[in-house]
Amino acid sequence: MNLCVCLVILSFNSVKSRSISEKNAIPKRTFDEKNKEHWRQQAQWTLRAKLAKPQNTKVAKNVILFLGDGMSITTLAATRVYLGRKYGFTGEEVKLSFESFPHTGLAKTYCVDSNVADSACSGTAYLTGVKANSGTVGLSGIVKRGDCEGQRDTANTVTGLVDWAQKSGKATGIVTTTRVTHATPAAAYAHSADRKWEADTDLPKHGLRCDDIASQLVRGGVGSRIDVVLGGGRKNFLPRSEKDSRGKPAGYRRDKNNLIREWLLSKESLGQTPKYVYNKKDLLNLDTKYNSVLGLFSYDHMPYHLEANEDDPSLSDMTRKAIEILSRNSNGYFLFVEGGRIDTAHHETKARKALDETAEFAKAVEAALRLVNTEDTLVVVTSDHSHTMTYSGYSERGSDILGFGTKINASDELPYTTLSYANGPGYRPHQDFKRANVMLDDLSSLNFTYPALVPIVRETHGGEDVAVFATGPWSHLFSGNYEQNFIPHAIAYAACLGTGLTVCS
């Protein structure tokens, strides 16, 4: 298993960049940063690279949209150091795979009714092109969270990139490390007044009945036509009556529907050759005859990379397989890939896991770039929202990003960590009006909760802009600062999708 191919070191001895996986070929200290010529050459190299890069105005045959859930700019900066330290560098000087993309912008993430976005309304924005209310998926801003009647009114539904790609004859796919019915992937195909209505069990027991998100993936007009779905959340597709190998409930559904079996039968009725897989071995060994694949690799979210076992495919594994299958369509494809557990780790203020999940996300982008030609494939990398993690202190270069911020204690004579959160479960009660002494904690633990200022069970999102990185046809459209809902419109323009303005029109 390759440890990392997602870090790029720029070499001024060559106009090419090298992957960190080539660590044996790279000196531990490539440049002398104390030499003024180092910085001049670095800036000149960057300038020449930008001047030499022509704008690509071809039609994008394929599109891959990567979404790092909760991947704030602070998270990116900290992950560089986390990875750089792994391979003998100080860290700050390296880049994640997508940070070398030629065009970068900033997206504003607020939603119709909230200045800080959740994954549902933001997902609706960057996948359908319409901003919505917090907690709602695939619906316009007229529908408030929990409004089942509003969900049932088709006048309020909005569709986006997956639907547009399907109507243009392209193959479509969704890959995620969360439940495939979670808010982010759900925004690609579902219409739900509440992001939590993932299975029928989650719906209110009284009042109007609405279709749950899992059933919409199998029966919905958009969901049922998706060719590849890979991720977690098996429980939302199976009834409680079904048992696993240990005799425990295999599912969570209140009804008696086995949606996995229904998905297989539905695909067969359309003349497709479908396959359901639930472990890494079966995914990687898939026969080329299967043109429609559903992979549900865990009961709930997929495990964190640092806690995964040999049966758990990585985000890179799933991304490579999805591209392999979707590439068989001569009309091209649209693939949505989410690194979803960056977000869940931040909510727990477990910064070590959050940075590692970001590193895995960057590896998945690198894996995709090795398989596609950016002359005809548009690759966009972004995030849905920020988090409250901060990166502070005056630690020396080469310090452990997951360690202490400086040799000098704070005014209360206690040390502090370089990374901390504005709120979350990492809050420690004051003792004698002093902060808890983190020197007494094990910062090397995977589950160490980093300090937080405000006590709250689950850390919140942040409201600042998120970065957008793009390469391939019309990637220059993603420069500047814009509303998050602009992203799918720019993608549609480049790939000639939907009914709006496109390069083809």
TrEMBL record:
Cofactor details (free text): Binds 2 Zn(2+) ions. Binds 1 Mg(2+) ion.
SUPFAM superfamilies: Alkaline phosphatase-like
Binding-site residues for Zn(2+), renumbered to this chain: 69, 343, 347, 384-385, 461
Family (UniProt): Belongs to the alkaline phosphatase family.
Name of the protein in its database record: Alkaline phosphatase
UniProt catalytic activity: a phosphate monoester + H2O = an alcohol + phosphate
Alphabetized UniProt keyword annotations: Cell membrane, Glycoprotein, GPI-anchor, Hydrolase, Lipoprotein, Magnesium, Membrane, Metal-binding, Signal, Zinc
Organism: Pieris brassicae
Bilayer topology annotation: Lipid-anchor; GPI-anchor
Classification via Gene3D superfamilies: Alkaline Phosphatase, subunit A
PROSITE patterns per record: ALKALINE_PHOSPHATASE
GO molecular function: alkaline phosphatase activity; metal ion binding
Superkingdom field: Eukaryota
Cofactors demanded by this protein: Zn(2+); Mg(2+)
